[in-house]
# Entry
Amino acid sequence: MSELEELVERDRDHECGGLGADHVCVRLVGVAELPTRFGHFRIAAFWNNRDGKDHVAIIKGNVRGGEDVPTRLHSECLTGDALGSLRCDCRDQLESSLSKIGELDRGIVLYLRQEGRGIGLMNKVRAYALQDRGLDTVEANLALGFGDDERDYAIAAHMLQSLEVGSIQLMTNNPNKIKQLEQLGVRVSGRLPHLLPPNPYNQFYLETKAKRSGHYIDFGVRLPEQAEPVVVEGMPEPDLK
# Structure
């Protein structure tokens, strides 16, 4: 029995007071091998008592009891992750984090079901429509009655706790992720910048992240293999304001 399978057995009857304002309790329910184009991982599925969604950890190597484990928190984005939308950098972020961690001895990508910064797919499409009329991402969310970012990382914090990870190096440009995780008891020993070059369709979105949400983004970053911006044939150039 592997160390992760032992944790599944441990969690069969797990109940606890939970983490965060919603007292989120998480249970590790299954583990399987996951060979990918980015490397060989194991995928761990988690039940939780809050949202009824299936969140997963994509794990490289032995992370149980690990210190300074490179970790990425990735929030679900159907339009980017699955459909290749250029309006955001989500697919690039996901693939880059898997590729980087796939080259390491150990690491974790938590794939969290928090579509549209936590407002859901339907509302994300509504926010897109407002952005098409000139609003930025923050203004669009506010116009729909939401905050700038509705994501809650209590589930992620408990997932790391369930995996018995001692401390992490968080792969992020978002200071709020670090703040929330630390408030929830996760030891964040360092930050690993996760910078990717913009394309013509997401540059204003990324600029808004930097200017209005405080993300650490350097717009001078250009990766050699992606030196030229992506342009879709037949699609008009976006207004970058």
